[in-house]
Amino acid sequence: MYDFAYHKPSSIADAVKLLSEDPDAKPISGGMTLLPALKHRLNRPTALIDLSAIAELRGVKQEGGALVIGAMTKHVEVATNPLVLGAIPALAKMAASIGDTQVRNRGTLGGSLANNDPAADYPAAALALGASFITDRRSIPADDFFQGMFTTALEPGELLIAVSFPIPEKAGYAKLRNPASRYAMAGVFVAKGGQGVRVAVNGAGPCVFRQPEMEAALAANWSPEAVAGIHQSPDDLNSDIHGSAEYRAHLVTVMAKRAVAAA
């Protein structure tokens, strides 16, 4: 690691002030993505802004037809929260499948979404559910938030405060995990609600994306059979020692069928 300053603010206002004063400072939540990057010297912030002491960034509440989840809410808290279990059980089940026990007790919803790792689970849930990202400055629709590998619409110094997930009529998620890293080789989150049918794919490509053919098929017939004959193009999908682009393309269809069945 390189040298850096360390700050631990106790309020959103203090955190935003620290970030505005130093454009090269980085907020840190669970550290599941940022700490490995620091250890490998892939990132060189002048300061880390530790968000763990900001109580107002944690928790789950229902506002109208949506669940609003604080950015510092841990995976295990999403997985076990009664509101999430009752309103969006697919989201709770997904959170319970992330990484291992240590990761779920340290990693946070906001950290996962703000880093936009291609294999992270929450981006698929947020995109499929049509979530809104609430920052200290604005609200960003999920369709505009994810912009590429490890890239989002967040501007320098902008702090993610919470995410609003519309409560769907039905939703489901399925993924194939790499047995070593537990990251998703390919995952599919399906949802049907006020925004229609939405299908989001993570792990298979460099960034989470929607699958419009499957959305149209499920809108006409919500069943695993409706997506069974739809083949994802391998173009632009990830290919590595763990699986080719063609293999991941095949997984998209398999996981979509399982996600619909789970819903």
Q: Could you give the topology of this structure?
A:
Blueprint: E1 5-7, H1 12-21, E2 25-28, H2 34-39, E3 47-50, E4 60-63, E5 66-70, H3 75-80, H4 82-87, H5 89-96, H6 101-104, H7 109-115, H8 122-129, E6 132-135, E7 139-141, H9 142-145, E8 146-148, E9 151-152, E10 160-166, E11 170-177, E12 184-193, E13 196-202, E14 209-210, H10 212-220, H11 224-228, H12 245-262
Number of DSSP E strands: 14
CATH architecture of the largest domain: 2-Layer Sandwich
* Tally of alpha and pi helices: 12
Whole-number total of structural domains: 2
Largest sheet: 5 strands, antiparallel
Q: Assess the beta-strand content as a share of residues.
A: 25-35%
Distance between the termini: 44 Å
Task: Specify the oligomeric state.
Answer: single chain
**CATH domain class name of the largest domain:** Alpha Beta
CATH topology (level 3) name of the largest domain: Uridine Diphospho-n-acetylenolpyruvylglucosamine Reductase, domain 3
Radius of gyration (CA) equals: 18 Å
Strand order of the largest sheet: 4-5-10-6-7
